[in-house]
Specification:
CATH class of the largest domain in chain A: Mainly Alpha
Number of helices of chain A: 11
Number of domains of chain A: 2
Radius of gyration of chain A: 18 Å
Largest interface: A-B, 22 and 22 residues
Largest sheet of chain A: none
Number of strands of chain A: 0
Oligomer: homotetramer
Helix content of chain A: over 70%
CATH topology of the largest domain in chain A: Tetracycline Repressor, domain 2
Strand content of chain A: under 5%
Distance between the termini of chain A: 18 Å
Shape of chain A: elongated
CATH architecture of the largest domain in chain A: Orthogonal Bundle
DNA sequence: GATGAATGAGTATTCATTCAT
DNA sequence: AATGAATGAATACTCATTCAT
C-alpha cells in the first residue's frame, strides 16, 4: 500500500500554486528518505520534483521552512491515520500498543515517512514536541487508570521515543519485521512496569496476526 | 577530573609526528563537542589545534579518517577506564549497572567524549560495532548466568544503546543528573526481564551514593 | 500639496490600458524614491501598484524603458509647473533664480520627484539632455542680455546642474531648507560672474520670504 | 605616466599573502574603472587578477570590504602625492588651486583612480569624510587668512566636491583638458567669494602652463 | 613535516523575463 | 489585458583539498 506522493494527490482539485507546493513537499519527503535531512539539497528537491531550482523560492523561504512543513504534514497525517483506528479504544495499554504498532508500520511501509519522522525527532524540536504529546497523552491515561507505574516526564518520553525510533530505523534498513514491532511494544510496556509475560500477552492480544 | 587533551598528553615521549597527530585528534574531539560531527570543519580542527590547515593532510587522508580515529580512541579509552573498575566483577547485573553508570558519567563529565560517542553511534558503523560488543559481552554473561531473559540480537543491543544515548544526550544538555543515570540502568534491567522493584534494588546496590 | 499618483490621476478619462500604464509609472516613481533607481525591482513596482508582476511586460519591454518614461514624465511635468510661473518673466537673473528655486522646492517637497530627477541626471543621458536644455535656455538669455559672463558649454551646464543636484539631495536627506536653496541660487549666479553681494541681493529679491 | 598596478608594485618585497591582497585591490580599482562600483562583481575582480574566485575570500569578507579598502588606498595615495607638492605652500588660495588641480590631474591621468574616487564619494561615507577633510582644512585656512568669504559647513563642502567630481567625470569621458581643470578651480574660488577676474588670475598664477 | 595561499566544485539565493491560463 | 507560476542565468559565498615553499 504505497502512498508515494500522498500530498500531491491531495492537491488534485487545488489551484496550480498549491499543487506545485505540495509537489515540492512530496519531493522533499522522498529526498529525505534517500539522503537524510542534512544532505537534502534544494536542487535535489527541485530536480526530483521536475521543477526549476528557482521555483523553490516562489514557495518557501529556505530549506528549513520546507523541512518544517514537510515534517509537520507527515506527522499530522500519520497522527490522523493512527487516530482513526483509536477513537473507540479506552484502554491505555491497548492504545499504546496500537499506536506504536501503527506508527512503526506506517513509517516503515511508507519508508519515506519514517525517514522524515526520525529526522524531525532529531532536528526539529517543535515537531518533536507535537509528536511526543500524543505519546504523553496515552501514557498519562495509563497513569490515570493506575496501570502504568512510571514517572511521566520528558526523560521518560525520550526513552520511549528512542525505542520507537530504533525500531523504525532498523526496519527501514533491514525490512519490515512484525516481530521487532511487537518487541518494541513489549519493551515500552516493560518500561511502564509490566512484567515480561504481561507485556507479551498484552501485545499479542492487540497484534493483527 | 578534566581529561582535556588526553591523547596529546599520551604522546609526551613520542616523536613529533605522532604528537601532532594526537593534537589533531584531541582538537577534533573538542570541536565535535562544540559543533557536532556534521558541522566540524577541517579548519576548525586545525585552528583549534593551533596548526596550519595544510598540516591536517600530512596526517589524515580526509575528514572521515580523523573522525573515525578520534571516535575509536575515545571508545577505546572509555572502555579501558570502565574495564579497569570491572575486572573483578563477576555478576552480570553488577557489570551492566557499573558499566552503564561509568559510561554515562564519563560521557557527561567529560562532555567532549559524550558528543563524540553519540556521533560515532549514529554515523560510524564500525565504531558503533566496537562499542556495542562490550555491551553484548556483559549481556551475554547475564544470559549465561540465567538472569537475563532476553533475545540477545542486534535489535536488542540497539534498544539498550538508544537508552544510554538518550541519557547522555539529556545530561549533556541539562546537566549531570545521577537520578537519570540510575533510571537508565533500571530501564535496561527491565528490558532484561527484571521487575521494577528488582531493577531498582539492583541499581541502588551499585550506585555510589 | 501632495502630488502622489499624479500620472494616474491624469489618466482618469483614458482607456484601461493607459490607466494601468500610468499606474505603473506612478509606482515606479514612488519605488525609486524609496529604494533608488538601481535597487528598484520590477516586482517592487508591480507590488506597489497592486498589479501582477507579469502585467509589467504588457506595457514595457524592460526596466530601462519604464525608468526612461517615468523620468521623462517627471521632467516634463516639473518643467510645465515651473514654466507656468515663468511665462512673463523676462529677466534672465530672475528666471534662473525662480526656476532653480522652484525646481528644488518641487523636488524636495514632492520628494519622490527629486529622487527620480537625480537618478535620471546620473543614469539617463537623454533625459539629462532634456532637463539641461531648459537650464541652457535661461543662461543663454542672460548671455544675450549681457549680464552673465560665462562660457555656456556642456561643462558649465554640468557644473550648474551639479550644484542643483547637491541641494536637492541634501534637502531630501536633512529636510527642506530654504536657506540652502537660496545659497544654491547664489552659487549659480556667482558662477555666472556675479559678486557675492550682487548675487545675494538678486536672490533675496526673488525669494518668497 | 601610467600607474597601473600601483599597489601591486608596492608589494614587491612583501610576503605572498600581501602581494595577492594588493593584486586583488589593484584589480578592483581597474574593474571599477571599467564597470563602476555597482556593477563590479567578485568574479570580475578575481578574473581580472588571474586568480580563482575562492581566493577572494581568503583575503576579504565581502565586496564591501574590498571596495572600502581599495577606495581608502586610492584616497590615501592621492593625498600623499598631492601633499608632497604642498608642504611648503602657505597661501590658502594656492593650496586650493594646487590641490584641486593635482587631484583632477591624477584622477584623470590615472583614470582608474578617478572612477574609484567618484564611486567612494557617492557610496562610501567614511571615505567621503576622509577626502572632504583635506578640502575642509584648506578652505578653513582661507577663512582664517581672511580671504575666503564663506560659510564653511557640510553643504559648502558638498558644493565644492560636486564641482571637482563633475570635472573629473567629464575629463574621464572626453579626455584630459587643462582648461576644464582651470575653470573648475576658478569656480571654486568664485564660490569662495572671488571675483571672476581675481579667480582667473589666481588660477593662472598656479597653473603649469 | 609544517605551512598557508590558492584552488574550484558545490550550494543557496535573487530576479528579470516568459508564457499558459 | 491581466495574471502569477515557472524559469534559469547570474552571482555570492563555503570549504575540502592541493601544492609550492
Amino acid at each position: 500500500m504505497s502512498q508515494q506522493a500522498l500530498f500531491r494527490d491531495q492537491g488534485k482539485g487545488l489551484p496550480k500554486r498549491d499543487r506545485t507546493r505540495l509537489a515540492l513537499i512530496d519531493s522533499t519527503v522522498e529526498v529525505i528518505a534517500l539522503k537524510g535531512m542534512d544532505l537534502a539539497k534544494i536542487s535535489d528537491i527541485t530536480d526530483h520534483a521536475g521543477l526549476a531550482n528557482g521555483t523553490f523560492y516562489n514557495h518557501f523561504a529556505d530549506k528549513d521552512e520546507i523541512l518544517q512543513e514537510a515534517a509537520q504534514r507527515v506527522a499530522v497525517e500519520m497522527a490522523r491515520q493512527i487516530d482513526e483506528q483509536m477513537r473507540s479504544i479506552e484502554s491505555a495499554v491497548t492504545r499504546v500498543v496500537v499506536a506504536t504498532t501503527r506508527a512503526i508500520r506506517i513509517s516503515v511501509g511508507e519508508s519515506t515517512w519514517g525517514a522524515v519522522l526520525i529526522g524531525a525527532l532529531q532536528h526539529l524540536p517543535p515537531i518533536r514536541g507535537d509528536i511526543l504529546q500524543f505519546l504523553r497523552a496515552d501514557l498519562q491515561r495509563g497513569v490515570d487508570q493506575g496501570i502504568f507505574d512510571i514517572e511521566l516526564d520528558e526523560f521518560f518520553l525520550d526513552q520511549v521515543a528512542s525505542l520507537i525510533t530504533v525500531s523504525i530505523r532498523t526496519q527501514i534498513e533491514t525490512g519490515d519485521d512484525p516481530v521487532k514491532t511487537a518487541r518494541t511494544c513489549e519493551s515500552i510496556l516493560r518500561l511502564c512496569g509490566f512484567s515480561r509475560a504481561k507485556a507479551r500477552k498484552a501485545v499479542a492480544a492487540h497484534t493483527p496476526e
